[in-house]
Design brief:
The chain is built from 4 helices and 6 strands, in the order βααβαββββα. It is an alpha/beta fold. A 6-stranded mixed sheet has the order 1-3-4-5-6-2. Strand 5 and strand 6 form a beta hairpin. The chain is globular.
């Protein structure tokens, strides 16, 4: 577990047997996620730099187009969590590693209980959503991170969009 976090990783609902190396890779990724999804521990890139390769990449063109590294993502996600100050991962619905690749499908939840988001004041509205992530781990560090997330579903639940203006 992360030296920065005192809580265990969220439970994994579906997984498979892992080699010792695959288990290490899975734990590197879970530690990255535990920090990135912690309103308390994610202070941006410096919070996860020790877990990322110097040449790491991040891809999520429809949800985080401005991010190109896992460090950029940590910065951007810290901003989101300023608005959703109770954001957390409920469970890893699917979690497994094969060689250097790790796949996570996870469920998360939170409410708009923090700072305004794009000018919208905190409403207390709650949201639940799912996302998937594929990581590549090399030498114990995140080398790549690809994320798919239903951002619009979350935003609609939080009242950050009114209808289909982003469709």
């Amino acid at each position: 577990m992360s030296s920065q976090s005192s809580t265990p990783f969220p439970p994994s609902k579906i997984t498979t047997a892992q080699t010792a190396e695959e288990e290490k890779n899975l734990n590197v990724v879970k530690e990255y996620m535990a920090i990135s999804y912690s309103p308390r521990h994610n202070k941006g890139r410096s919070s996860v730099a020790h877990l990322c390769a110097s040449n790491s990449t991040f891809t999520a063109p429809t949800t985080f187009p401005q991010c190109s590294t896992p460090l950029d993502y940590a910065d951007s996600h810290a901003h989101v969590m300023a608005s959703i100050a109770d954001l957390h991962i409920i469970s890893y619905d699917i979690a497994f590693a094969k060689d250097s690749h790790v796949l996570l499908r996870y469920s998360a939840e939170g409410s708009h209980c923090g700072e305004p988001h794009n000018g919208i004041k905190a409403s207390g509205r709650k949201a639940k959503w799912t996302a998937s992530a594929i990581f590549e781990v090399e030498d114990g560090k995140v080398k790549s991170f690809t994320k798919e997330w239903d951002k619009l579903n979350m935003w609609k639940q939080l009242g950050w969009i009114n209808g289909d203006e982003y469709l």
